[in-house]
Amino acid sequence: MKNKINLLLLLTLPFLIISCSGKENQAKIIPQVHTPTPAIQTQSNRPSLGRPISVPSSVKRPIEREEIPRSRPAPIVEQRAKHGESHYSKRFKLSNTIRESSGLIKVDNRLWTLNDSGGKAALYQIDERNGRIVKTLNIQNASNKDWEDIAYDDTYVYIGDFGNNRGNRRDLKVYKIPRASLRTGKSARAEIIHFSYNDQKDFKSRPQQTNYDCEAMIAYNGKLYLFSKNWQNQKTRLYELSTRAGKHQAKYIRTFNTQGMVTGATINKELNILLLSTYSSLLNVNVWAFTNFHGSNVFNGDAKRLNFDIPLQSQVEGITFTDNYKAYLGSEAFKKYIFSLDATLYNLDFSGEFE
To answer: Is 229 a member of any domain?
Structure first.
């Protein structure tokens, strides 16, 4: 039996050697499939937030993002699990001159605000280190009946005179000034966009009981988008409005249940992230983040109410991006009975809730 096993091993050994040698050679001579090295992704023509993106009209501008066909997909923003948290902190108390700060923008690396109803027809630049006012820009042909928010695009800045807490205003308007005037001038002359809501039929005065108040606006893809402050049902209605001077109707698009009154809006156009600030009747502040939306309906994507690590109670009226997942919140001074709050600028970091 032992001789038979030895004979079998002797006969099979050459085949094993040949087989192993063949596999080894095969591993060495596998042809390499040539895959072209992908081109390095260059950044979009639109600079990152905080950098100037408009130049005088006499200078030839590079192609801006709005000029790229809209079929180009926006980046997908991944949200973290619900246990992610956002953090806010007090930056500084605002100057008494802007105790009723009701809107914020950070544009061309400068922070601007405006006052609420009855204030001067002016914009104020704030020093981000200490809160001091470093510049005032007067709007020559405007009056501040109830200024509530401010927005910008590559060429213009838009001032929303559309506060309407009685629901009976018929003189709603947006002032439109050259963006360059914020850098170079002490005053500016505005074009005026007059408008009405295409679905408002009732103009009876109902103080703080109307759904046709408005305190939030963004400029996006060549249009203005307004977000109503619904006193009655704590929701918001989205409207689209032309950026051209003249008389227009704001077109209703959709309603979203924010579970609070919307008081400010800002959009990161690089990532297509929209933030809406809200507060309740008890001044409990929340911020909603909308991502992965398409077209004019910014409510057709993903929505998430930010999860603050500590509840915030304030009369927040303005919000603006300062970086991809960071923003400022601005509050008005508030005093009622023995309860009072200073006008304050807050830092907001919500990167913990997003990838």
So the answer is: yes
- The SS3 of residue 264 is strand
* Average pLDDT by stretches of 10, the chain with 355 residues: 43 43 41 41 40 37 37 55 82 96 96 93 97 97 97 98 97 98 94 98 96 98 98 97 98 98 96 96 96 93 95 96 97 87 96 87
In angstroms, rounded to a whole number, what is the distance separating the alpha carbons of residues 89 and 328? 10
Is 231 domain-assigned? yes
Phi-psi region of 126 (alpha: psi -120 to 50; beta: other; left: phi over 0): beta
Spatial contact of 223 and 217, defined as CB atoms under 8 Å apart: no
Measured CA angle at 139 (ends 225, 318), to 5 deg: 45
Q: Which three-class secondary structure state does DSSP give residue 235?
A: coil
> How many CB atoms are closer than 10 A to CB 220?
19
Token pair, residue 245, equals: 């001077």
CATH number of the domain encompassing residue 285: 2.120.10.30
Q: Residue 169 falls within a domain, yes or no?
A: yes
| Residue 240 covered by a domain | yes
Domain range for 125 is 83-353
Q: Phi first, then psi: give them for residue 11, nearest 5 degrees.
A: -75, -35
Number of structural domains found in the chain:
1
Phi and psi angles of residue 255, each rounded to the nearest 5 degrees, phi first: -110, 145
Ranges assigned E (strand) in 179-233: 187-188, 191-197, 213-220, 223-229
Burial 94-123 (b: 16+ CB within 10 A, else e): bbebbbbbbbbbbbbebbbbbbbeebbbbb
The neighbouring-strand residues paired with 157 are 152, 177
C-alpha torsion angle, residues 112, 118, 122, 127 (rounded to 10): -30
Tokens 């009056």 locate to: 143
Structure tokens given for 244: 């051209």
Contact 288, 303 (CB under 8 A): yes
Q: Is the pTM of this model over 0.90?
A: no
